[in-house]
């Protein structure tokens, strides 16, 4: 099926669904690099107007990547919940946008509808929305997950404490970890990107975090962001809480990461059997990012934002505790400047939440992108308003191992204080108990005699 739309006596032709979605996307460097974006602003508007009139049922009849060619397409089609879809089945993409912004789409209704929305539907409707629309709709969506604490409640914002070190030095990691905890970071996860992926290094880092967690009764979870096969290898030798994996929106992308749906299923089952969660058993941590499929030459001529939404179908299958879009990490070839990074982050957060996922955002950029910390301050504030589940906490906002710019412990304090947001409730009580926060959520000064400083460093 193809579509045409005429503006000022000029007819624009869209040969298939993936072309229509690509041409309707707000401009970004990755789609231009791939030759997928609209050639003019007028063509983009023509595509958006065409997309607005498209019935949602079209996405159940046509696939952007053929069913027999891609296991993620098969996952999307085979697991679609017709009952959840029924209340919105008569809508067009434009009608879905209007419904999402109406009072009819409240938190409970959106939760019930999530399983009936496909990633392509989510991507399509986001292409018709302004930034304020993405924020307004997303803030109504509450996705709550649990392991040792409760993440995603309204009025709460969690932080991944990211104590990376370029040589995996235990003292350097411990110093960063304690620094973050003193500032109230770490309730999403204490998560380390290891400098090496060897089982020995992963075991050492997991043991370091877990020993500290148990010694001070910290109600949080740990993760070393190694490859999923390494995590499976060390599960019976080390305290594995969460299993991590980067994922993409096409079968080819995931193959480039060395994973498949069957491998993810195997790891998920094994992690569940460990039963390390105390109040819940969401055991997976996924990271994504617009441009990952294109950078692997695995995008199948699908625009990068639609590919990103398709990655959320993979995440949704495994009931994760955390999903993190590392929005500006890949570089300006995919998201050129601060404006494109901000837009992409709001899209990712909205689409993930619409599909029922516990979305966090790594508010970040690389040093060769046309972006700076002011752009990240703006994005962090917008995400706080939008109800983002978690952000990153990196010492000084400068990751010395991954060499990119993110958000600091102070940034997390800023957004919590500015918007009246609190940590996860169990973690908040721990902060109060240890004299790091008062009952009103205010961070307290830390004396040099504090227990965390005296007994560990």
Report on this structure:
By secondary structure, the chain is of the alpha/beta class. It has two domains: 3-138, Orthogonal Bundle (Annexin V, domain 1), CATH 1.10.220.70; 145-433, TIM Barrel. It has helices spanning 17-24, 29-33, 41-52, 58-61, 71-78, 82-85, 93-100, 107-113, 119-126, 131-138, 170-182, 199-215, 228-234, 251-256, 261-274, 292-295, 304-317, 338-354, 373-386, 409-419, 425-433, 451-455, and strands spanning 3-7, 10-14, 145-146, 150-151, 158-161, 189-192, 222-224, 243-246, 284-288, 322-326, 359-362, 390-393, 398-399, 404-405. It has a four-stranded parallel sheet, with helices on one face. α12 links the parallel β6 (189-192) and β7 (222-224). α7 (93-100) crosses α9 and α13 (228-234) packs parallel to α15 (261-274). The longest helix has 17 residues, at 199-215. The mean pLDDT is 97. It is found in: Bacterial microcompartment. This is Ethanolamine ammonia-lyase large subunit. Catalyzes the deamination of various vicinal amino-alcohols to oxo compounds. Allows this organism to utilize ethanolamine as the sole source of nitrogen and carbon in the presence of vitamin B12. InterPro entries: Aldolase_TIM (IPR013785), EutB (IPR010628), EutB_dom_2_sf (IPR044939), EutB_N_sf (IPR044941). Its cofactor is adenosylcob(III)alamin.
Can you tag this structure with a few keywords?
2 domains, four-stranded parallel β-sheet, cobalt, 457 residues, 14 strands, TIM Barrel, Annexin V, domain 1, 22 helices, Aldolase_TIM
């Amino acid at each position: 099926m193809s579509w045409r739309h005429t503006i000022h006596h000029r007819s624009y032709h869209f040969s298939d669904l993936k072309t229509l979605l690509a041409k309707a996307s707000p401009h970004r460097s990755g789609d231009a690099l791939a030759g997928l974006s609209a050639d003019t602003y007028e063509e983009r508007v023509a595509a958006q107007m065409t997309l607005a009139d498209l019935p949602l049922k079209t996405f159940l009849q046509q696939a952007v990547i053929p069913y027999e060619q891609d296991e993620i397409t098969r996952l999307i089609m085979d697991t679609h919940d017709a009952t959840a879809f029924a209340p919105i089945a008569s809508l067009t993409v434009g009608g879905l946008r209007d419904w999402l912004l109406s009072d009819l789409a409240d938190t409970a209704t959106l939760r019930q509808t999530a399983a009936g929305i496909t990633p392509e539907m989510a991507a399509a409707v986001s292409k018709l929305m302004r930034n304020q629309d993405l924020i307004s709709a997303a803030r109504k969506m509450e996705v709550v997950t649990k392991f040792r604490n409760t993440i995603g409640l309204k009025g709460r914002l969690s932080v991944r404490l990211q104590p990376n070190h370029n040589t995996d030095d235990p003292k350097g990691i411990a110093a960063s970890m304690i620094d973050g905890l003193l500032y109230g970071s770490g309730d999403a996860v204490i998560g380390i990107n290891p400098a090496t992926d060897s089982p020995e290094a992963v075991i050492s880092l997991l043991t370091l975090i877990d020993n500290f967690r148990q010694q001070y009764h910290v109600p949080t979870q740990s993760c070393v962001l190694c490859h999923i096969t390494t995590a499976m290898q060390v599960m019976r030798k080390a305290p594995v809480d969460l299993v991590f994996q980067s994922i993409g929106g096409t079968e080819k992308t995931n193959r480039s990461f060395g994973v498949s749906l069957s491998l993810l299923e195997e790891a998920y089952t094994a992690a569940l059997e460990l039963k390390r969660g105390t109040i819940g058993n969401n055991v997976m941590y996924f990271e994504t990012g617009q441009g990952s499929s294109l950078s692997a030459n695995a995008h199948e001529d699908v625009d990068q934002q639609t590919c990103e939404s398709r990655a959320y179908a993979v995440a949704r299958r495994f009931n994760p505790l955390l999903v993190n879009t590392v929005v500006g990490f890949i570089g300006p070839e995919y998201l050129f400047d601060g404006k494109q990074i901000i837009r992409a982050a709001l899209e990712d957060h909205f689409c993930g939440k619409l599909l029922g996922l516990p979305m966090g955002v790594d508010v970040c950029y690389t040093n060769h992108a046309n972006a700076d910390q002011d752009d990240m301050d703006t994005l962090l504030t917008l995400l706080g308003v939008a109800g983002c589940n978690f952000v990153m906490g990196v010492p000084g906002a400068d990751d010395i191992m991954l060499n990119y710019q993110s958000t600091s412990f102070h940034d997390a304090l800023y957004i919590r204080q500015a918007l009246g947001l609190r940590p996860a409730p169990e973690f908040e009580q721990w902060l109060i108990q240890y004299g790091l926060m008062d009952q009103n959520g205010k961070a307290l000064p830390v004396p040099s005699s504090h227990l965390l400083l005296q007994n560990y460093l």
